[in-house]
Each structure stands twice: as C-alpha cells, then as structure tokens.
Design brief:
elongated; 14 strands; alpha/beta; five-stranded parallel sheet; 2 domains; Rossmann fold; 338 residues
Length: 338
C-alpha cells in the first residue's frame, strides 16, 4: 500500500471539471429572474454543537468564500445548523435547509451528506467526508459523481498503516495498540478493518475500545488502561476530533502515547498527529460552492482528495508521559510543539 507523505503538495482531482448549465435550486429563491435582489444562501450541517466548536471547519469555509470574493451579508448568506454530536438530528436539519430554499448545502460529515441526499435531489450538496463517498453511496464515482453531490474525500482510513508506522518509529518496542473508535461513525467499519489489516502486516497486537459519545470517553480510557497497551490510535470520527482536549488529558493521566488524524489533535495535547489540514480542506470546499453558484453541475465536478499531509509532535506531552521522541522522527515533523 502506498501512503502520501508530508512532502507531497497541492490538490488533485480525478478528472477535468466540466461546468454545465445552472440546475434548479442552485440559486437562492429558485428563480434569479424573479428575485434578483436575493443573495445566495448556503446551508451548512456540522456535527458540533456551535460555531466555536466548528471553528476550524467553518473558518476554512468562510476564508475560502472570502478569497473568492464573497462577503457575508453582502453577496452571500450562511445558514449554519449544528447536530451537537447527535447524528439523528441531521435529517430534520437538512429538511429545514431545503425548506429554506438554500442555494447549496455544505455537509460537514458523511451522515450529514446522506441526510442532505435524502432531503433533496435538486439542491447541490458539497461534502468533505472521511470515508469513501462511493462505498457510502454518496456519489457514483470520484471522477463523475453524478446526481447533486460532490466534494472532497479525505480517506483517512487509508492512512491507518502510516499511523502505526509512526508509532513504531517513535516507540521502538511497540507491540500492542488500542484503537479507540466510534462505532456510530459512517467510517467505523473501514477504520476497524484497515487497523486490523495494518496491525497484522506490522506484527502489532490490536484491541478495540468503543466510545459513542463524549461522556463515554472516561470509561473508555479506564478500559484502555486495563489492557496496558503501548499506545492508542484514535480512529477517524468528528466526535473524537471535537473531544481532542479531553482525550489528550485522559491519555496523559494514564501515561499513554497517542496518535490522531488531524494536526490540531497534537496541538490539543495528543503525542502525535498526522493528516491533512482540516482548515485547508474546508477552504477548498468553498471552491465547489463558487463553481456551483456560477452554473456548474455538482455531478460533473470530480471529487477531490488532499495530497498534502502534516506530521505534528507534542514535546510537552512527550515529557509528561516519559516518552523520548527519536531525533530521526523529530527531523521529519512539520510541526514540533514545545
């Protein structure tokens, strides 16, 4: 299996973008000729509880829109909706946005994208999802999504082997790892399957611990500590990313090395993190919104995948749990948090 490296850069799409005629529902109000005074309304669906918790995602989207000449309240409006980690809320929230006749729906996670897909077949949906949008039945293919959905596929699950390799580079005696994951996540099956395959290939013992909600994390870490693993791998999931500070505190209290899937997880106190910049992903998602507002059909816009990844190491956490990070790994880091 080949893994992207921190030295790779830029973004790529799987096919050339083709812009077609504007489809119904891609302009606020539905008929720009009858309502020329109306500005496009962009509905967003986030798994978090509020704007502050969604700052890295919403901030990237806003920055991307700003870079493309959009000013909130002047020539664009955002209608932000938050599920507060309760994924069953995406259905009514998506319906609410459809009834508000938004021009585009931006979906922050796979479940939000699926809810938007069920809510409308005409309003374009732009997503950034952690799993495979083809196997999740969001799109027909990456090159030609079809229907009214397109966006960015982060594909974190393909990096599972890389996470374990980084842990092994840091902890030379690594022989056992616990995967902490959310079984309710759309990518849960892929996360577990890839972790099992990668651990077998590297001859590392793997055990699984579940956490479905923030209030389950303390219990989860008690279960992890009882298994006495050499390290903990945090499975891709919006709830786990949002609870990165709590996870970091629990891991340090049990003196457990951890690796996460986004750079801000090391910044929050995990020992290591490796993955694409989430802010940049959402900044890039704004380009899809712009193309759709200018007439492109989402089904003709290829799904993109990030190719630039960052390795972040937290030296404060390393000192706190008694881990010495090898100089060779420090030299490879894109960010070292002192």
């Amino acid at each position: 299996m080949c893994y992207p490296t921190a030295l790779s850069g830029g973004w790529h799409a799987t096919a050339r973008v083709h812009c077609g005629a504007r489809q119904r529902g891609s302009v606020a109000g539905g008929d720009a000729g009858q309502h020329p005074e109306k500005i496009p309304r962009i509905g967003t669906l986030w798994p978090t509880g509020n704007e502050q918790e969604a700052a890295i995602f919403l901030g990237g989207l806003r920055q991307g829109l700003h870079d493309l000449g959009y000013v909130e309240g002047k020539n664009i409006e955002l209608l932000n909706r938050f599920a507060n980690e309760h994924y069953d809320r995406f259905e009514p929230l998506a319906t609410e946005l459809v009834e508000a006749n938004v021009s585009v729906i931006v979906a922050g996670v796979g479940f939000a994208a699926l809810a938007a897909k069920r809510a409308t077949t005409t309003i374009p949906v732009v997503f950034a999802v952690a799993g495979d949008p083809v196997s999740s039945h969001l799109v027909d293919s990456l090159a030609r999504p079809g229907r009214n959905l397109t966006g960015i596929s982060i594909m974190f699950t393909e990096l599972t082997g890389k996470y374990l390799e980084l842990l092994k580079d840091c902890l030379h005696s690594l022989s056992s790892v616990v995967l902490l994951y959310n079984p309710n996540s759309l990518a849960a099956q892929s996360v577990v399957s890839d972790a099992q395959s990668a651990s077998r290939a590297l001859n590392i013992g793997l055990s699984l611990v579940e956490a479905r909600a923030p209030e389950e994390l303390q219990r989860a870490f008690l279960a992890i500590a009882q298994r006495q693993p050499d390290a903990v791998l945090i499975g891709i999931d919006p709830m786990l990313q949002n609870e990165r500070k709590q996870i970091a505190e629990l891991a340090v209290s049990h003196r457990l090395p951890t690796i996460g899937f986004a750079p801000d997880m090391a910044q929050a106190g995990l020992l290591m993190s490796y993955g694409p910049e989430l802010f940049e992903i959402w900044r890039r998602a704004a380009a899809y919104v712009d193309k759709i507002l200018k007439g492109a059909k989402p089904g003709d816009l290829p799904v993109e995948r990030p190719t630039k990844f960052r390795l972040a190491l937290n030296m404060r956490t390393a000192h706190a749990i008694g881990v010495t990070i090898p100089p060779s790994l420090l030299a490879r880091a894109d960010e070292v948090i002192e």
